[in-house]
Amino acid sequence: MTRYLALAAALALTLTACGGEDRKDAAQPPAATPSQTPSATPSAPAAPVTRSTTELTGALLELADLPTGFSEDNDEEDPDSKPFSAPTSRCKALVKYLNATKAPGSKASVSRTFTGGQEGPYIDYGLDSMGTADEVTDLRDAYAEAVDSCTKVSLKTEGSGNTTMKVEEITAPAYGTKPFAFRLTGTSGPKRGLEYAAVVTGVGDVILSVGVLAGQGTELDPATETAVIKARQVLKTA
Predict the structure, then answer these.
(1) What is the band of 39 on the pLDDT scale with cuts at 50, 70, 90?
(2) How many domains does the chain divide into?
(3) Torsions phi, psi of 58, nearest 5?
(4) Can you give the residue range of the structural domain that contains 177?
(5) CATH of the domain at 196
(6) Does the residue 24 lie in any domain?
(7) Which of 42-46, 55-59, 226-230 has the lowest mean pLDDT?
(8) Which of 238, 211, 230 is nearest to 56 (CA)?
(9) What residue spans carry the region label Disordered (predicted)?
């Protein structure tokens, strides 16, 4: 199964630092006794954390962590597959995210997909090491901006044609740091009615993603909670 969620995917943001206004003192010191205020030493940014794929894999949910009735989906994903497209440039970023299989800037990336049967649900779990919590926040914010800028995308299904899918932000499960969630809903075409819900959230220097395809609308919250708890325990983040 193609990993639909690319958060494992985000564009690097160009952040512009905003300078503050010059501070004007109410009174100047006498010329005979000049006073020099030492400039404050900025705090050093947190050192990047290095995570191996082995470490991330150990923090990823396994079949034993899921309810009975699920099995692991071991289908090979096609790295060249690009099922999503859009007619407008406003959706360019989101299309890139949805078609990607790992996050740009990710130092290490792992994922697993589980299925409840041929009709679903399919639940995809991903962990991407970004090095620092700030990088995780930037990725999350970029993804939120991409969703906010796009109202619909097109999903191409082999042998079935294209399905138009509505894009909308939804209330995110309250687990991890700054969680963000969205939903794609088929509104016309062969996959009309198909739903894909996804969340991205921070676990320290790692971004965690959970995606649910063809679910009943109730899987995302408990799936995210379980994934965050295990990731925090294994990765030993706050």
Answers:
(1) low
(2) 1
(3) -70, -25
(4) 65-235
(5) 3.40.1000.70
(6) no
(7) 42-46
(8) 230
(9) 21-52, 68-87
